[in-house]
Design brief:
The chain has 342 residues and is of the alpha/beta class. The chain has helices at 2-20, 40-51, 72-78, 96-102, 110-119, 122-130, 170-178, 191-196, 208-214, 241-246, 249-283, 293-313, 315-338; strands spanning 22-28, 56-61, 83-87, 135-143, 149-151, 165-167, 182-184, 202-203, 222-225, 233-240, 287-290. The protein folds into 2 domains: 16-144 and 232-273, D-Maltodextrin-Binding Protein, domain 2; 149-230 and 280-307, 3-Layer(aba) Sandwich (D-Maltodextrin-Binding Protein, domain 2).
């Protein structure tokens, strides 16, 4: 009799637990096999499941499983998909400040950007831009500095950029256009063929860890640094606001903390992966170079002009831009004081 009672009690507990479980679908803008970025939302969902003891169960889907990648934001906004994972800059047409957070030329390094986002008021500014779209944003993956790009010729002066056909995204593209380059946004899966067939002369995509998988080293033999156009950038979890509001405060806190854990993991994982990829790229006969100071100076000037123009168009872009500048100047002093001589 006692055994039957215990069994019945256990069954009721399991039933109650199952009834409390909240299940959601999340679609990424990336394929799940893409190094570093692909597994990131899966790792976050695993942590959320673990930390909530199964109360929040998120199933992650790769690019295109429900909607095309560039339609994820709209689908989350309307509630067609509860959650998404993205590169923030993809939504710049709807949310101008997203372009700044996704790709700020000559912007803060990863550590400064991290501090600004969570302790410098950054997230509060960005959320104001997402609110009209009924979307909750949680920064969840901080991308390390990208490469400056792959070029089929040496870049010795700013004049070498004039007439160059280059695949480049975000605000960096606007700066390059100001320097005379012909810029275009080629989808990731088409970049290799575009380089191979001469439709573009140069491309940027990401850091060595990702670039090597696309095989660019087989075609372009000049790999330039630094990644002036994207010293750091953010990927995020986006959640329909009605869905977010239906989740308990404790589980909302867990979902946010799981993103903090995800950022930490991805920072050290990306740092560890770059040098191995870079060595393989060099072994393929690629010349790893730095842009000359003259070229970087021209890029900085063009970027400053672009940023000021964009700030004049949108009040939240302006607020975020001025906030980043002030934070970097004040808090960056600590890093400057700690610089050791080489």
């Amino acid at each position: 009799m006692r055994r039957a009672f215990l069994a019945a009690t256990a069954a009721l507990a399991l039933t109650a637990g199952a009834a409390q479980a909240e299940s959601y679908d999340l679609q990424s803008t990336f394929g799940l096999q893409v190094p570093s970025i692909g597994p990131s939302p899966v790792r976050w969902a695993d942590n959320v499941r673990l930390m909530t003891k199964g109360e929040v169960d998120v199933t992650v889907h790769g690019a295109g499983e429900f909607v095309p990648p560039f339609e994820v934001f709209g689908a989350v906004s309307s509630g067609a998909i509860p959650m998404g994972f993205d590169w923030i800059g993809y939504w710049a047409d709807s949310i101008p400040v997203a372009n700044l957070v996704g790709s700020m030329p000559f912007g803060p390094d990863p550590m400064l950007f991290l501090g600004w986002m969570f302790q410098g008021g950054g997230l509060e500014i960005i959320q104001k831009a997402y609110d009209p779209h009924n979307v909750k944003v949680i920064p969840c993956h901080l991308v390390v500095p990208e490469a400056g790009g792959w070029f089929n010729k040496e870049i010795n002066t700013a004049a070498d950029l004039q007439g160059l056909n280059m695949r480049i995204a975000g605000l960096g593209a606007k700066a390059m256009a100001r320097l005379g380059a012909n810029t275009q946004l080629v989808p990731a899966g088409e970049i290799y063929v575009s380089l191979e067939r001469g439709r573009i002369d140069a491309t940027e995509f990401s850091a060595p860890q990702l670039d090597i998988g696309f095989g660019f080293q087989q075609i372009a033999k000049n790999y330039y640094f630094p990644g002036w156009h994207q010293p750091a950038s953010w990927d995020s979890i986006i959640i329909n606001m009605d869905v977010w509001n239906s989740i308990s405060p404790d589980n909302q806190k867990i979902m946010t903390e799981a993103c903090h854990a995800n950022i930490t993991y991805n920072l050290y994982d990306q740092m560890n992966a770059q040098i191995e990829a870079l060595e393989k790229i060099e072994a393929a006969g690629v010349q790893v170079r730095r842009f000359p100071d003259e070229v970087l100076s021209a890029m900085r000037q063009a970027s400053a002009e672009v940023l000021q123009e964009e700030a004049a168009k949108d009040p939240l872009f302006k607020e975020a831009y001025e906030s980043i500048q002030a934070y970097s100047e004040r808090v960056g002093r600590w890093s400057d004081l700690q610089q050791l001589p080489r």
